[in-house]
Design brief:
By secondary structure, the protein is an alpha/beta fold. Helices cover about 30% and strands about 20% of the residues. Strands 22, 23, 24, 25, 26, 27, 28, 31, 32 and 33 form a ten-stranded mixed beta sheet that branches. Strands 11, 12, 13, 14, 15, 16, 17, 18 and 19 form a nine-stranded mixed beta sheet that branches. It has a six-stranded parallel beta sheet with strand order 35-34-36-37-38-39, with helices on both faces.
Length: about 1150
């Protein structure tokens, strides 16, 4: 049988040693996998050099986890949890859980289980057995006629717990405390008359193979270690007994040859078991990979659904540039159009391969030197509305053409539009390229990455002069420069949707000579005749604008209350700034300390320093505005005292940008004293307030598409060191004195300048050092009313910063895809409720219920659903524009504050599940933010109504997958299901009596965790697999009836009938307690708490299966959504 062993195995085990058969089994498993052609390693242990079971190295481990594919961890039962954080986990049960280490394995529902022996599986139905053994049968055999040794095996049980007075004299103790080699152990066991043991062990089997009878003993308190009847059955019913009488030993000895036959038979079975192990584990890993693939960016890109109705008759012309392109590349581009219904007549191939079948496909082909004129002719005859050019090999993404037709028809004043893209690496990996809105300095620095594959409006393309045939690659950039010079940046628009899939070789292919000519032409037309464009090693451009000449800079400082900090900053400023035409203005509080006053007097003696004394009541903004009224320069530098200077040209570089007419401010790169990035620009809305780009990375890091090394325009820059044009300062009124929150003050001026139409330039070529810890703080909007006020005033910058992209994450690390990209349609519908489901607590049955209900509504297009976790910040929630937020638990204080802040900006309904942690223990503020509580309990609804809480009782609605399937033929014995996990101690005691009284007449099936005392009386114990309470698992149990026993107690007061409906929907008869929480319209048997009544019903009564017609009222149907659900969500 061929099995594709694509996923590797990491096996946890102690150091290899011959004295432990369990350890040998784990190492042997690794050997077997590798010998079979797979890849397996032992983790954190020494290995057997004679086996193909290598130790995992750090290099190999990094290769495994970085492969992007699932890998499999194999843990013995002594391992708790998933310490390797493996995608796929296998539990190899070499003993019962907790027997050796007294640990709980804490398995997840997705873990695969394999048992070394059937007895270790308790009552698991059809357990997966993997009976690996590596006994040397030529060594362990009965070839020693002299039997003169008596043995006692001791390992886990201390000698102090045993009474050894009745043991034979001169007995030899075999113990792991004195381990023997296998050869020495075999020599001893061959001489054995008898081996006594209080515990099951592989050594016992070795003794049997050597002709030594085994006598099983039991010690009080350690009975679970002992050999038992199941152990006897596992080795063919021979090999050991419970008495050491001569007759009993003779009987055991007579059956010893059967043990060897059993071992040989198991070896023949092992091949099948091992194949089953490989098949199941590889299938599980493949399943994990499939799920990962379905949630991957590449899958979303190829399977996304966009509005298919094309409401606009926008005519498009697609030009495919084919010089030197392979036929396969041309085919890929053409196919991506034709499968979207594009008319071949609207495709123009430029210089395709001579043998390409353009004519047979009704596609027009032109030569490389005539294509521009061909496009011009089509434009002059109004044959198209918008023009788009791509290189052969570039593909249009799914549904992109219809979407672009609609979007282009609404382009307004835009004459050219660029879109987001995706790049396919040579190895096939696809990466999204999310672009900012038009960013003049960034796009000039990297035109080949941002200004290609542009959609051009026909009329403006004609009037701007069309493409210049002299430019074979940068012709779009050349035309866009004309657009910028004629109409300004407002003529170029951005659609944040991925429309093209670009090969990496095409995307990152600059046309350096052409770009240099175009940039120089742009600078000449702008009047910067002395400016120069120089290409850097990362293939981006640095434009060196003309050096300023006589401009005066006025530096505004707030003296603060730390003289040492003030003098440190000023000395660094004076000593490390080459720009000489500057003045320093210092705001000093009227109650400044004598030390501060003395220092300022000393400073005035050695430097020109204007000191303004400010009132104690004046905040920072008013102090800076007061300083501005006394400046004599045309440029103002806001400077924080924590700033130090290392490059003398830092101010000159900033000034060269601010003298540009369109620029209102410029800021430097901030680094730390240990040369890490502190801020390479700022993103409004990130990190809960404003995020510093690149923070914590090495200061010369390139960043996303080399952005950390490119000059660019940001919406906000830090006022810790910000150069501002005084004219712009005065136009916006300077700093806003109504704010004194330092985190608001830091960004308020750049935001006001942005609204006034000024550009803010960030440059990596001006570098300053700062140890201001405020720049490291993660700030939450809800912690400050002033932040909330500013956010409410300018929400568009915090939810959709033009310097960023709405589909990039607002949490660190920045410039990575946000969490919602794989969840289907990107945009909320305006006609459906936009519902945001926030998981704000542990998973529980109630959170799954509401998720299932909302998913059903979303699948039927009744709502538009998004899911996330409760750590979403205020800007992140606002970005999603929800109408309704549903919480899986009652909100904590922090979440309540964030939701309250959101509610101040957009109308918002906030629902919370009362059943999974309701309003009982929460403060008034936490409770009041919830506009409506949801419950499935009529009793809880009544309770909350009495407390004047708005509440709705949701109906039990199962998904359509719960519709009962055909049942197999009933077995001879009734199969009774019990799910004991939620039972109280008294309820378990009641059911224990019922099981004890009925287990001889019915087969009990226990689902989930089970009390150990029940094990001898039940037929099957079944672990949860995958999703709890799934119809698939319930059907597999083949239960005839299920019992739901509840006492009428406070513990059960707020429970409901959801589980009863689930069981009934699967065609299982129900016996339930006659209590209020289990009342509904289904006709199953309800019993009082009389043990005799329950025993009789379980053993004798009919199954009480609910009909499909009766259960249908509890199944979700689009046509019959209950009114309460419609009122809440639709």
């Amino acid at each position: 049988m061929y099995i594709d062993l694509h996923s590797p195995y990491l096996i946890a085990a102690p150091d290899y040693r011959e004295s432990s058969l369990g350890i040998q089994v784990l190492h042997r498993l690794c050997h077997m996998i590798n010998e079979r052609g797979g890849r397996a390693w032992m983790v954190g242990c020494t290995v057997n050099p004679d086996w193909n079971a290598p130790a995992l190295t750090q290099e190999t481990y990094e290769q495994v986890i970085s492969s992007g594919k699932s890998w499999i961890a194999v843990y013995p039962e002594v391992t708790t949890g998933n310490p390797f954080s493996a995608p796929v986990t296998v539990r190899y049960m070499l003993n019962r859980e907790g027997v050796i280490m007294q640990n709980a394995i804490e398995a997840s529902a997705d873990d695969l289980f394999f048992w070394y022996r059937p007895e270790f599986a308790d009552k698991e139905p059809n357990p997966n057995i993997l009976g690996i053994e590596c006994y040397d049968l030529s060594l362990f055999q009965d070839d020693q006629p002299v039997k003169d040794k008596d043995f006692l095996y001791l390992n886990r049980i201390p000698e102090s717990a045993l009474d050894l007075s009745g043991q034979p004299e001169n007995i030899t103790i075999l113990s792991m405390r004195n381990p023997l080699s296998l050869r020495d152990l075999a020599m001893l066991l061959k001489r054995g008359r008898v081996l006594y043991t209080y515990e099951s062990s592989g050594t016992c089997l070795l003794a049997m193979l050597c002709g030594c009878p085994v006598v099983s003993l039991s010690a009080p308190g350690y009975e679970h270690y002992a050999l038992n009847e199941q152990s006897l059955q596992d080795i063919g019913g021979a090999g050991f007994g419970y008495s050491d009488s001569p007759e009993a030993l003779d009987e055991i000895r007579a059956g010893l040859p059967l043990v060897r036959d059993v071992v040989l038979a198991k070896r023949r079975l092992l091949d099948t078991q091992f194949e089953h192990f490989l098949s199941l584990t590889q299938a599980k890993a493949q399943q994990h990979d499939d799920v990962k693939e379905r949630t991957s960016f590449s899958h979303w890109l190829s399977h996304r659904t966009l509005p298919t109705t094309v409401t606009a008759e926008t005519r498009l012309l697609h030009v495919i540039l084919c010089p030197n392109a392979q036929v396969s590349a041309i085919d890929a581009s053409v196919a991506s159009l034709t499968r979207q219904g594009v008319d071949p007549h609207t495709i123009l191939l430029v210089a395709p391969e001579p043998g390409y079948r353009a004519k047979t496909m009704d596609i027009r082909a032109v030569t490389g030197d005539s294509w521009v004129s061909a496009v011009r002719q089509l434009a002059e005859t109004e044959a198209f509305d918008w023009l788009h050019c791509i290189d052969a090999g570039v593909e249009y993404t799914a549904a992109s053409i219809g979407m672009m037709r609609n979007m282009l028809s609404q382009a307004g004043e835009c004459q050219a539009i660029y879109t987001d893209e995706a790049v396919r690496a040579d190895g096939g990996e696809i990466t999204p390229i999310r672009k900012p809105d038009f960013n003049l300095d960034l796009f000039l620095a990297s035109p080949h990455r941002y200004l290609r594959r542009i959609w051009f409006r026909r009329e403006s393309w004609l009037s701007a002069g069309q493409f210049n045939p002299e430019f074979s690659q940068a012709f779009e950039f050349d035309v866009l420069i004309d657009y910028l010079l004629q109409w300004g940046t407002g003529c170029i628009g951005h659609i944040a949707d991925i429309t093209t899939l670009v090969p990496a070789s095409v995307f990152d292919s600059p046309a350096s000579l052409e770009e240099a000519q175009i940039l120089q032409r742009y600078l000449q037309h702008r009047g910067f005749s002395q400016a120069q464009a120089g290409q850097q090693k990362n293939l981006t451009w640095r434009i060196s604008y003309p050096q300023p000449e006589h401009e005066k800079v006025s530096i505004l400082l707030d003296a603060g209350d730390d003289p040492a900090l003030l003098i440190r900053c000023v000395e660094s400023l004076i000593n490390n700034t080459e720009w000489q035409n500057k003045e320093i203005l210092l705001a000093v509080a009227e109650n400044a300390s004598s030390a501060m006053i003395d220092l300022i007097k000393q400073m005035q003696e050695v430097m020109p320093l204007t000191v303004i004394v400010c009132g104690v009541e004046q905040n920072f903004a008013s102090r800076m505005n007061l300083l501005e009224q006394n400046v004599t320069g045309d440029f103002i530098l806001l400077l924080d005292l924590h700033t130090l200077f290392v490059l003398k040209n830092w101010l000159t570089t900033l000034l060269s940008h601010v003298i540009r007419p369109e620029v209102g401010s410029a800021g430097p790169k901030f680094i730390t004293t240990d040369q890490r990035l502190l801020s390479a620009g700022m993103i409004a809305g990130a990190d809960g307030w404003v995020g510093h780009v690149g923070q914590g990375e090495p200061w010369q890091t390139e960043g996303e598409l080399s952005r950390y090394q490119c000059e660019q325009n940001y919406t906000v820059l830090s006022s810790n060191c910000l150069l501002v044009k005084r004219e712009a300062w005065q136009r916006v009124g300077g700093l806003s004195v109504e704010y004194d929150d330092q985190h608001v003050i830091d960004i308020i001026l750049p935001l006001k300048l942005k609204r006034a139409g000024y550009l803010a330039v960030w440059t990596p070529f001006s570098v300053v050092v700062s140890d201001n810890t405020r720049l490291l703080e993660k700030i939450c909007v809800s912690e400050s009313t002033q932040r909330q006020t500013l956010l409410a005033e300018m929400p568009e910058f915090f939810t959709d910063d033009p310097a960023y992209n709405r589909y990039l994450s607002l949490q660190r690390p920045l410039f990575r895809h946000g969490p919602f990209i794989t969840n289907g349609s990107e945009d909320f519908s305006s006609t459906r409720a936009n519902v945001l489901l926030l998981k704000n607590g542990e998973d529980c049955e109630y959170s799954k219920r509401i998720a299932d209900l909302l998913q059903n509504l979303s699948t039927d297009n009744a709502i538009c659903l998004k899911r996330d976790y409760s750590d979403l910040t205020v800007p992140e929630i606002l970005r999603l524009v929800p109408n309704i937020v549903v919480l899986t638990h009652a909100p904590d204080k922090a979440l309540s504050a964030r939701l309250a802040a959101v509610s101040q900006i957009i109308p918002l309904r906030i629902y919370a599940l009362a059943d999974s942690g309701g309003p009982g223990n929460n403060t008034q503020d936490q409770v009041s933010v919830v506009t409506h509580w949801l419950t499935w309990s009529a009793e809880r609804e009544a309770q909350l109504s009495k407390r004047k809480r708005p509440v709705s009782c949701l109906p039990v609605l199962l998904g359509r997958e719960w519709v009962a399937q055909a049942r197999s033929t009933l077995t001879e014995r009734r199969r009774v299901l019990c799910i004991p996990e939620a039972l109280s101690v008294k309820e378990r005691e009641f059911i224990s009596r019922i099981i004890a009284a009925t287990h001889t007449r019915v087969d009990w099936i226990i689902l989930g965790a089970w009390p150990a005392a029940w094990l001898p009386m039940v037929a099957e114990t079944v672990r949860w697999r995958g999703e709890r309470m799934s119809p698939e698992q319930l059907h597999q149990l083949q239960a005839d009836i299920a019992i739901i026993f509840r006492l009428n107690s406070d513990q059960n007061r707020f429970k409901d009938d959801y589980q009863a409906v689930q069981l009934a929907a699967c065609g299982i008869g129900i016996l339930a307690s006659d209590v209020p929480s289990l009342q509904n319209d289904l006709p199953f048997r309800r019993l009082n708490a009389d043990p005799q009544v329950w025993q009789n019903e379980i053993a004798n009564a009919n199954s009480h299966v609910v009909s499909q017609r009766e259960i249908n009222a509890f199944i979700y149907h689009r046509e019959s959504i209950p009114e309460v659900v419609r009122r809440l969500f639709m």
